[in-house]
Amino acid sequence: MDDASTEASMVGLLGRVTGTVGPGLVGEVIVRIRGGAEHFLAHPAVPKERIEIGTVVTVMEHLPPRTVYVTAVYDG
Predict the structure, then answer these.
(1) Residue 45 vs residues 19, 35, 39, 48: alpha-carbon distances, Å
(2) CATH code, domain with 52
(3) Number of domains composing the chain
(4) Residues 71, 42: contact at Cβ < 8 Å?
(5) Are the C-beta atoms of 50 and 70 separated by less than 8 Å?
(6) Most C-beta atoms within 10 A of its C-beta, which of 29, 32, 53, 69?
(7) pLDDT given at position 74
(8) Is 59 within 8 Å of 51 (Cβ atoms)?
(9) What confidence tens digit (pLDDT) does each residue in 41-50 have?
(10) Residue 11 belongs to what domain range?
């Protein structure tokens, strides 16, 4: 799988924050992909958004190899 198809396949996936994501912070998320679960460095897709540990997020952008931009998933 090339980088372009990997990037496209990451966008829209759900993950869970394992290290707080926020302004000035490099957080961490775990995402189920490629038959397993992988950790990625994470930044907020919305500037100034802080996302706490345990929050379910959606991958909005993937910068290979291990960085994603995420936003919190809200019910309702």
Answers:
(1) 15, 25, 17, 9
(2) 2.40.50.140
(3) 1
(4) no
(5) no
(6) 29
(7) 78
(8) no
(9) 999 999 999 9
(10) 3-72
